[in-house]
């Protein structure tokens, strides 16, 4: 008894675990260019990376994000995985504030 289902479904894969783990790329425009930002879920973070924002490690199973320049990829003719940087989420969020004004409270006591 062979009975084939010839019907095609518009959506064949209800749950794409791979993409779910990889997250969805977003493009963020910043003062220093357009960046592609890809969130990395804890389950997809299997290695440790160095965050350029704080110069500390991003440990495995830590949700974070990967960012790289849009025009960096275009300039190198497509695909610039070496240009990708792994960031802590708060470090990436704070990136835009870097180099503009260092907030320093006059009255704040100095410890260390
Ligand atoms: Zn960091």
Describe the structure.
The chain is of the alpha+beta class. The chain has a domain at 20-87. 17% of the residues lie in helices and 23% in strands. The strands form 2 sheets. The protein has a 4-stranded antiparallel beta sheet. A two-stranded antiparallel sheet has the order 3-4. The structure holds zinc ion (ZN). Zinc ion binds at residues 51, 53-54, 56, 88, 91.
List the helices and strands and how they pair.
Layout: H1 17-22, E1 26-30, E2 33-40, E3 49-50, E4 57-58, E5 64-69, H2 70-75, E6 85-87, H3 89-95
Antiparallel strand pairs: 1-2, 2-5, 3-4, 5-6
Q: Concise description?
A:
With 112 residues, the chain is an alpha+beta fold. The protein has three helices and six strands. It is extended.
- Percent of residues in helices: 10-25%
Residue runs with pLDDT of under 50 for 5 or more positions: 99-103
Main beta sheet: 4 strands, antiparallel
Strand content: 15-25%
What are the salient characteristics of this protein?
binds zinc ion; 6 strands; alpha+beta; 4-stranded antiparallel sheet; extended
């Amino acid at each position: 008894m062979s009975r084939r289902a010839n019907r095609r479904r518009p959506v064949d894969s209800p749950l794409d675990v791979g993409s779910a783990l990889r997250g969805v790329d977003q493009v963020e425009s910043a003062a220093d260019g357009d960046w592609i930002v890809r969130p990395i879920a804890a389950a997809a973070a299997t290695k440790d990376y160095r965050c350029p924002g704080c110069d500390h490690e991003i440990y495995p199973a830590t949700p974070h994000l990967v960012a790289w320049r849009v025009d960096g990829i275009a300039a190198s003719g497509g695909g610039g995985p070496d240009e990708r940087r792994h960031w802590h989420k708060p470090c990436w969020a704070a990136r835009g504030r870097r180099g503009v004004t260092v907030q320093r409270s006059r009255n704040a006591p100095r410890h260390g």
